[in-house]
Amino acid sequence: MKPDLSQLTIAELNAVIAEAEQLISARKDEELQKTYQEFAERARALGMSMDQILAVGAKGSRGKAAPAGEKKPVAIRYRNSANPSETWTGRGKQPRWLVARLAGGAKLEDFLV
Predict the structure, then answer these.
(1) Every domain of the chain and the residues it spans
(2) Beta carbons of 80 and 86 less than 8 angstroms apart
(3) How far apart, in Å, are the Cα atoms of 31 and each of 28, 54, 74?
(4) CA–CA dist 13, 95 (Å, integer)
(5) How far apart are the first and last CA of the chain?
(6) How far apart are CA 68 and CA 53, in angstroms?
(7) Which of 41, 55, 60, 69 has a CA between 20 and 30 Å from the CA of residue 79?
(8) Count of beta carbons in the 10 Å neighbourhood of residue 99
(9) CA–CA dist 49, 41 (Å, integer)
(10) 32-47, pLDDT tens digit by residue?
(11) Mapping DSSP to helix (H, G, I), strand (E, B) and coil, where does residue 9 land?
(12) CA distance 112 to 101
């Protein structure tokens, strides 16, 4: 049954809102604890710890994940023939030297490594 809130004052409505927010928070905490316990039981049934389960979920596989922040360098795909030290991987914004050469009539394929 839905309570009739139309006759309540603003203060009473605010009190109802505050009470509802507390109940929502308490129910979320209960559900979280229940879900944690279910996962912990499943992990024990598999002979694994919760850390192992969470690590698999974070990696998406059973393999080792690369540590956060450790990135492999991207291979160079384009090189300026006039200045070989100027390169571009093909990712992100095109470098100025390449934009200028393309504007001069060159083709992107001319700079492939």
Answers:
(1) 10-59, 78-111
(2) yes
(3) 5, 18, 44
(4) 60
(5) 72
(6) 18
(7) 69
(8) 11
(9) 10
(10) 999 999 999 998 999 9
(11) coil
(12) 13
Q: Is 21 left (phi over 0), alpha (psi -120 to 50) or beta?
A: alpha
The C-alpha atoms of residue 98 and residue 88 are separated, in whole angstroms, by: 9
Q: How far is 89 from 104, CA to CA, in rounded Å?
A: 21
Rg (CA), the chain: 30
Return the SS3 of 8. Answer: coil
Q: Tokens for 30?
A: 């209960």
Annotate 35-94 with three-state secondary structure. Answer: HHHHHHHHHHHHCCCHHHHHHHHHHCCCCCCCCCCCCCCCCCCEECCCCCCCEECCCCCC
Q: What is the DSSP letter of 1?
A: -
Tens-digit pLDDT profile for residues 39-93: 999 989 999 888 888 887 766 555 555 566 778 888 999 999 889 999 999 999 9
